[in-house]
# Entry
Amino acid sequence: MLTYRSNTYIPELVAITKELAENNSFDGSCTDATGRLLAVLSGQIKQGKILEIGTGFGVGSAWILSAIQSTVQFISVDIEPNRVEFVSKNINHPQATFICGDWKDIIHKGPFQFAFADVAAAKSVEGEILIDILEVGGLLLMDDLTPEEHWPEQWRGKTDPVREFWLNHENLTATEIYLTPTASAILLTKIK
# Structure
């Protein structure tokens, strides 16, 4: 079986943050599949700002920072003060700012050219606010979705409000992409 660097490579900063998360029994970090996509998308941003909503232990942050252009600022926000303090001490990057608080309190720092929303409320009930902070042409990635064919029985035949909102919004072009056979994400761009 062939192995490709794109499917196996883990940047050093990502390996460090993954270990920190594991040592703190935190299982909410993004997967390597999501991380690799974050790195590719982040690397495409030539200027402006990238926002991460939900710092956790910095695994997503590390993927983004592993590919960020020197002309781009990165802001990550989380409501858990201990995690933000821990991550800010362990990720020393000149373009990174880690903020403790509600993500809606930092929207004045936008507009953002790319956002990674890893918090349930931002993906659903606060969606319009999230769209407003994106620049036209800006990208948004939301992971942690289960493909419909893997839904538990109690979900089958029901409407998914997250997919309904994001995949049908008139100001967005959006698609659901499979990261693995059992995990998907929504990737979108703001068109107006």
